[in-house]
Automatic annotation (TrEMBL):
Enzyme class at the top of the EC tree: hydrolase
Domain of life: Eukaryota
Pfam entry (one): PAF-AH_p_II
Keyword Ribosomal protein in record: no
Protein name, as recorded: 1-alkyl-2-acetylglycerophosphocholine esterase
Alphabetic keyword roster: Hydrolase, Lipid degradation, Lipid metabolism
Species whose genome carries this gene: Somion occarium
C-alpha cells in the first residue's frame, strides 16, 4: 500500500467531508459557456453557479472509542488520496492537462488510485478539555484555499500537520471550475428523489465568453475570485452555526440545507445510531461544556496556495461580499499565509489591505501576512516585482499588522502540495520531504506568533544569484539563489534591522 508520510504532531488527525446546500442558487452572470465548449455543459449558461458549500475538515481526533468499530483496523485508517469516483476524477485531470484520458487512466489507475494518506475517517472531534496546552480553550480555526487543479485532498499532508498541532483546518473544495472535477449536491440518505451526480470539469478560458468582451485575459479569474470569496464567507457561516448548535437542533429527517457529511455519519434520527450521535455531539456545544469546541469568532487564520494565495489576498483587500441583499459580517482573521501566490489575476494597482474600520472591531489584532515563495516564482521577474510591491503596500498600511516575504531555496511551485510526496523513492522524494518539513515549520511558527524565533534555526540568505549550467542543447543557463536546498531567502520582513543584519551579515 502506497501511503503519504505519517503525520508528526501532538494529536491524532481526523478527516471528514462536510457539505451544505444553499437555499437558492447564486449566479455570477457575466460570463457564459461557449456553444462549442467541451465540458458537457449547456451553451450560453453561466459557468459560475453556486449551489453548495463543500469542505474537508482536518482536526484533532478522539480515537479512544474507535477500536471496537468494525470499520477500523489498527491505530490508523488510511484514506484514499484521490477523490472518488476514480474514473471521473482521472477524466478531470486529463482535461486539465490537455492529454488523452486513456493515457492518464492507464498511467495512473494502477498507482495513484491506491495511494492513501494517514487520517481517521469521521472520528469524533477531540474535546478541547484534552488539549495539551491552553486546556479547555476552543481549537483555533484555519481556512485553506487550494490552487488551480487542486482538490480537497491535494494538500492533505500540510493540512493534517496543522491539525496534528492542535488546529481545526477547513480545506474548501472550490466549485468555481478550478478543481479538475467536482460533484456538487452530495446526497443524504432518505431523499425522496433519486440522486443524479453532476460532474463539473475544470473550466478553461476558451470555454467561456462575454457579451461585452473587454479583452482582459484575467476577467474570468476575477469572477472566480468573487465566487471564492462567497464560498469562504458561506463556509465560515455554516461551520459557525454547526459549532454553536447543540444536540437539540439535530434534525429528525435528512436535510441538505444544513451542514451534513458527504458519506456519513448522518445527522438525523440519531437515537438509532449511537456512533453517529457521538460524532455530531463532539462538534456541538453541550450542557456540561457550554463553550464552543472551535473558535469561530476571533483569531482565525486564512491560508492558500497559488490561486488560493491570490484568494487570501483578495479576501483581505475586499470588504465582505453581499448575498441575498445582505452583507456578511467580517471574518476576524489574525493571520494570513499565502503560499507561492499567483498574483496576476489580482487588480492593479494592489491589492491593498481593506481599511474599513468596522472590520477591526471584530478582532483585537489586525491580520499579519506571511508570503512563502518558491524559487521558481521568485525568478519569475515581472511576477515577483509585483508581489514585492503588494507586500510593501501591506507594510505601509497603518491599520494592519506587517508583512514578511520569504523564499525557500530549490523549492518548486508543486512542493507546497502532496504531489512530490507521492514519488516512491529517490533523491527527489527526500528533497520533497525536507521542503514540506520546512514549509510546515515556517507556517506553524507564523501561526503561533514565533516566526522570528523559528528563523534562527534556518540558514538565511540574501538575494545573491548564480548561474547553473544546463544541458548542451540549451544555450542559456538557469539562475538560482546562492545557497543550499532549504535555505531561506530573506527579502522583505517587518522584524528589526538588528535581527536581519545579524543573520545576513549586515553591519
Amino acid at each position: 500500500m502506497f501511503t503519504l508520510p505519517d503525520i508528526p504532531g501532538r494529536y491524532n488527525v481526523g478527516c471528514t467531508m462536510f457539505a451544505a446546500r444553499l437555499p437558492s442558487e447564486v449566479t455570477i452572470p457575466s460570463s457564459k459557456f461557449r456553444p462549442e465548449n467541451n465540458l458537457r455543459r449547456p451553451p450560453y449558461t453561466p459557468p459560475l453557479v453556486l449551489k453548495e458549500i463543500a469542505f474537508t475538515a482536518y482536526y484533532p481526533a478522539d480515537v479512544s472509542s474507535l477500536g471496537t468499530r468494525k470499520c477500523w483496523q489498527g491505530h490508523h485508517r488510511y484514506l484514499p488520496w484521490l477523490p472518488r469516483p476514480i474514473k471521473e476524477v482521472l477524466r478531470g485531470y486529463a482535461h486539465f492537462g490537455n492529454v488523452s484520458f486513456w493515457f492518464v487512466y492507464i498511467l495512473c489507475r494502477a498507482f495513484v488510485s491506491h495511494i492513501k494518506f494517514p487520517a481517521h475517517l469521521n472520528a469524533p472531534l477531540l474535546s478541547p478539555l484534552e488539549r495539551k496546552d491552553d486546556r479547555g480553550r476552543p481549537w483555533p480555526l484555519v481556512i485553506f484555499s487550494h490552487g488551480l487543479g487542486g482538490t480537497r485532498t491535494s494538500y492533505s499532508h500540510f493540512c493534517s500537520r496543522l491539525a496534528a498541532q492542535g488546529r481545526v483546518v477547513l480545506a474548501i473544495e472550490h466549485q468555481d471550475g478550478t478543481a479538475p472535477i467536482v460533484t456538487p449536491l452530495s446526497p443524504v440518505p432518505g431523499l425522496e428523489k433519486e440522486f443524479q451526480p453532476e460532474y463539473r470539469l475544470y473550466t478553461k478560458l476558451e470555454d467561456v465568453y462575454w457579451d461585452n468582451d473587454t479583452g482582459d485575459k484575467y476577467a474570468f479569474k476575477a469572477e472566480q475570485l468573487l465566487y471564492r470569496r462567497l464560498e469562504v464567507y458561506l463556509m465560515h457561516k455554516f461551520f459557525k452555526h454547526l459549532i454553536e448548535s447543540d444536540e437539540t437542533t439535530l434534525p429528525i429527517i435528512p436535510s441538505c440545507n444544513e451542514v451534513h457529511t458527504v458519506d456519513g455519519p448522518w445527522n438525523f434520527n440519531l437515537n438509532n445510531r449511537p456512533d453517529d450521535l457521538a460524532f455530531w455531539k463532539s462538534w456541538h456545544m453541550d450542557s456540561q461544556n457550554p463553550d464552543r469546541k472551535v473558535e469561530c469568532n476571533r483569531d482565525i487564520s486564512l491560508t492558500g496556495h497559488s490561486f488560493g494565495g491570490a484568494t487570501v489576498l483578495s479576501i483581505l483587500s475586499e470588504p465582505p461580499p453581499t448575498l441575498y441583499a445582505a452583507q456578511f459580517d467580517p471574518i476576524p482573521f489574525n493571520h494570513a499565509l499565502a503560499l507561492d501566490p499567483w498574483v496576476d489575476p489580482l487588480p492593479s494597482p494592489g491589492p491593498s489591505p481593506w481599511q474599513v474600520e468596522e472590520s477591526l472591531r471584530h478582532s483585537p489584532t489586525p491580520p499579519e501576512l506571511l508570503v512563502i515563495n518558491s524559487e521558481d516564482f521568485t525568478f519569475w521577474d515581472e511576477h515577483f516585482d509585483r508581489l514585492k510591491q503588494i507586500v510593501e503596500t501591506w507594510n505601509q498600511s497603518d491599520n494592519v499588522a506587517k508583512a514578511t516575504l520569504l523564499t525557500i531555496l530549490r523549492c518548486k511551485h508543486i512542493s507546497f502540495s502532496d504531489v512530490e510526496l507521492l514519488l516512491p523513492f529517490g533523491r527527489r522524494k527526500r528533497a520533497a520531504r525536507k521542503l514540506i518539513d520546512i514549509i510546515f515549520d515556517l507556517s506553524d511558527a507564523f501561526l503561533d506568533n514565533r516566526l522570528e524565533d523559528a528563523l534562527r534555526y534556518h540558514q538565511l540568505r540574501d538575494d545573491k544569484t548564480e548561474w547553473v549550467r544546463k544541458p548542451k542543447k540549451e544555450k542559456e543557463g538557469k539562475r538560482r539563489l546562492v545557497g543550499e536546498l532549504g535555505d531561506i531567502g530573506f527579502f522583505i520582513c517587518h522584524f528589526s534591522h538588528r535581527f536581519a543584519g545579524s543573520f545576513l551579515g549586515f553591519r
